[in-house]
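Bumping with the actual sequence this time:
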Amino acid sequence: MIEPDAKSDLHRYLQEARDALVWKLEGLSEYGIRRPMTPTGTNLLGLVKHATFVEVGYFGDAFGHPFGEGLPSWKLAMAEDNVDMWATADESREDIVEQYRRVWAHADATIAELPLDTVGQVPWWPEERRGATLHHLLVRVLGDTQRHAGHADIVRELIDGSAGESASGTSLPPGDQGWWEEYRAKLERVARAADQR
């Protein structure tokens, strides 16, 4: 018999999303990981940086467990537009990824220490609804991280054609480049036919 363990399940899926997000940077140049690939500037390193800010806030600040190291140049640069979604030229990939790993270790300590029904206070939410349980914030951060891991998957595919959820398994049907080109062409034909109706 398997006993339900909501905290463990949520945490496992959060870690899988974290790992996927970081893995999407592997093998790319500095330009590749910083390159804005959408009209709103979505880029791989920016997604990792953003996830760092999210976890610091929801698993640190909200529960009175501030991340002791601070976020060096990032917090000082908050006057810069959307600074949590991109890296400056002098912020290294290694520093941002290492900071994310330290932040998620800090978040993991909060998750392990507190029961799911522990109420924290989210300081940037409206005062009348600042209270939120660890369970609520864990679901919220899991959803946010999974969403951005999906963004990263699409951005990476646009950069070099790589797709999938992890280095060990893509979760995609098997097929070589020719198969995928034929498949995409078929979908294009279907879309055009549907548009003609």
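The tokens above came from a reply further down the thread. The mean pLDDT is 90.
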